[in-house]
Amino acid sequence: MISVEDAIHLVKKNTKPLLKEAIKPVEKAGGYILFKDVYSPINMPPFRQSAMDGYALNLHDNLSYSLIDEVKAGDNHQPILKKGEAVRIFTGAPVPDTANAIMMQEKVNNDGDKITIEHSINQETNIRPLGEQVKAGDIALKKGTKLTPAAIGYLTSLGITTVSVFKKPLIALVTTGNELVKAGQPLNYGQIYESNSTMLQNALYNLKFYDISLHKVEDDYEKTKSKLQTVINENDLVIVTGGISVGDYDFVGKSLIELNTENIFYKVKQKPGKPLFFGKKDNTLIFALPGNPAAALSCFYVYVNIALQKMMNRDVIELPRIKAKSLSNFEKKGDRPQFLKAIYNANNVEILEGQNSSMLQTFALSNALVFIPGTVSNISINDNVEVILLPS
């Protein structure tokens, strides 16, 4: 059995970035990281563009101008302005080549075919120059950029429809247990509804990982071994829940040994989630999480998340850890470090009731985990404690 710190270190040490390329439609590339530089195919803006509603002017030494035309956004005609002439123009409209400034409409007196501006104006005022954001052939976004909604909008504005991104891992979620029944089916005596796969699938979705397959296996050694062999061969990351302890019908550990999986660690000195396995076979990482739902989710956030972020070659791979003032008293039994479900708000944290590893009700209310080291046995109100902020 190893420490929490050693377990985290081993996950980091044994996880390598995938560094594989995938081509994605821009509209489906949110949350991905660019695999290579993206070059702009056009100037942006692709023409001299009006920055506001007003009047485009061919400047002269007088404040009065003759109004000769109008240009709206989307117009493609080019009025020719002589000195002292103006056209009505609107935000986003193309500025005629013969106009050299735009006066905002609030500072213009319109008298039919004549306008008078309130004061003189410098050349190119309120005109967005050709290629102001980016010029054709220049780098629009560099390799390694995370594609946020703004980045997706920017690339789309350049007419780009596909991008090269770092491939996200193929993930298999495997649940074990004869007692598990799919929600919506009748629940017989001795059975419970299976929640781990749905819970972990949505935790992955929340982290923007979508290439997930779900698998259910009975408490049978040969079936367990066969299923694990298949998913290990077909995926980059395998997450198993249940069957990793030492009961007579826990076949995951035995199957992984038979499949020659490298055991990097098994069992962590922590609560919840002591029977946690981490290993690999060839290029596939395997996490076998406890079957108890709250324990499985705690281990996912503390360990599996690190592997996922490392596989994506991200700089920040752990959830944020901060100090906060406890609003609760808590007495820890035993010497195992503990992850406690909690609610964090404005530098204060409340440790919730119902910390049992099988209970999700409390976890459903939590936005944080309070970490209590093994050397600490009691938390008192106003103590500073370490808080792990969970993804929102």
Automatic annotation (TrEMBL):
<dbReference type="InterPro" id="IPR001453">
    <property type="entry name" value="MoaB/Mog_dom"/>
</dbReference>
<dbReference type="Pfam" id="PF00994">
    <property type="entry name" value="MoCF_biosynth"/>
</dbReference>
<feature type="domain" description="MoaB/Mog">
    <location>
        <begin position="172"/>
        <end position="310"/>
    </location>
</feature>
<keyword id="KW-0460">Magnesium</keyword>
<dbReference type="Pfam" id="PF03454">
    <property type="entry name" value="MoeA_C"/>
</dbReference>
<dbReference type="InterPro" id="IPR036135">
    <property type="entry name" value="MoeA_linker/N_sf"/>
</dbReference>
<dbReference type="InterPro" id="IPR005110">
    <property type="entry name" value="MoeA_linker/N"/>
</dbReference>
<comment type="function">
    <text>Catalyzes the insertion of molybdate into adenylated molybdopterin with the concomitant release of AMP.</text>
</comment>
<dbReference type="InterPro" id="IPR008284">
    <property type="entry name" value="MoCF_biosynth_CS"/>
</dbReference>
<protein>
    <recommendedName>
        <fullName>Molybdopterin molybdenumtransferase</fullName>
        <ecNumber>2.10.1.1</ecNumber>
    </recommendedName>
</protein>
<keyword id="KW-0472">Membrane</keyword>
<dbReference type="InterPro" id="IPR036688">
    <property type="entry name" value="MoeA_C_domain_IV_sf"/>
</dbReference>
<keyword id="KW-0812">Transmembrane</keyword>
<keyword id="KW-0808">Transferase</keyword>
<comment type="similarity">
    <text>Belongs to the MoeA family.</text>
</comment>
<keyword id="KW-0500">Molybdenum</keyword>
<keyword id="KW-1133">Transmembrane helix</keyword>
<comment type="pathway">
    <text>Cofactor biosynthesis; molybdopterin biosynthesis.</text>
</comment>
<keyword id="KW-0479">Metal-binding</keyword>
<feature type="transmembrane region" description="Helical">
    <location>
        <begin position="285"/>
        <end position="304"/>
    </location>
</feature>
<dbReference type="InterPro" id="IPR005111">
    <property type="entry name" value="MoeA_C_domain_IV"/>
</dbReference>
<dbReference type="Pfam" id="PF03453">
    <property type="entry name" value="MoeA_N"/>
</dbReference>
<dbReference type="InterPro" id="IPR036425">
    <property type="entry name" value="MoaB/Mog-like_dom_sf"/>
</dbReference>
<dbReference type="InterPro" id="IPR038987">
    <property type="entry name" value="MoeA-like"/>
</dbReference>
<keyword id="KW-0501">Molybdenum cofactor biosynthesis</keyword>
